[in-house]
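lol ok so funny story. i was supposed to be doing the assay writeup but got distracted and ended up predicting the structure for this chain instead. priorities right. anyway since i did it might as well share w the group, maybe its usefull for someone
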Amino acid sequence: MVATAATLFAVNGTVSKVILATGLSSLRVSQVRVTGALVGLGLVLALTQPRRLRVRASELPLLAFFGVCGVALVQWLYFVAIHRLEIGIALLIQYLAPLLVALWARYVLGEPVRRRIWAALALALAGLSLVVQLWKGGSLDGLGVAAALAAAVTFALYILLAERALDHRDPVSLTCYGFLFAALFWGIVQPWWSFPASLIDDEVALLGNLDGSHAPMWLLMAWMIVLGSIVPFACLVGALRHVPATRVAMLAMLEPVVATIVAYAWLGEALGGIQIVGGAVVLAGILLAQTAR
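and the output, tada:
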């Protein structure tokens, strides 16, 4: 189930990049994803277990902060990153989040963290320097790298806020409320009545090795919402009944690996040999960080 979720998230990166190539902004793509996921997940809960949607007034500030900073911003920054960088590189940088969580746990929350966290940090930074090829003076898109780093920070914030909110709420309803406040946030930033609805029926070139093929925009958006958000989330939640959360987080690191393969097969994106080595070093550092907490 975790492998299925990681694979669907990985494929969704390429699907989202095809959508972004049409000229639809990262803000709009984020808005479509969270609003669509809210509708789908909210309907499932409302029809099957409406009691899980009950909320106390004291929970609302944390849920709103979680929805805006943890859900809305992390998705928007991720879309900015993959629009300007190769998907594999963007995800490798974003997956520094577990390392940031371990550092926060040790130095802010005062939780016991093994000394291997320093080795993990050294590995991650060394691998990252290979991925972005620092010796070339930052040949990658600077805004894309900055967005990916910011996505790592907001992803870590998502994990920490979720951990706190789960003291009083189950994961499914928490995510539903996260999508709710994220959708409300984007609705204020860019009202829905200004959405370019004419794009929905457009035929979109699939780019790369599939450039000769086309698909309607609404189908790509439906994939992003259902198979890129709701289904993989359900797989992860279901997996937590059988596999410990720490192991789920480790297995989820399949995403940048699969995303790189999918982007290569579909879009023709390829990492250089040194970048592949750097990616392996980054993943090793993240894996070590997961075992350090």
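The chain has one domain: 2-292. Residues 2-292 form one domain.
back to the writeup now i swear
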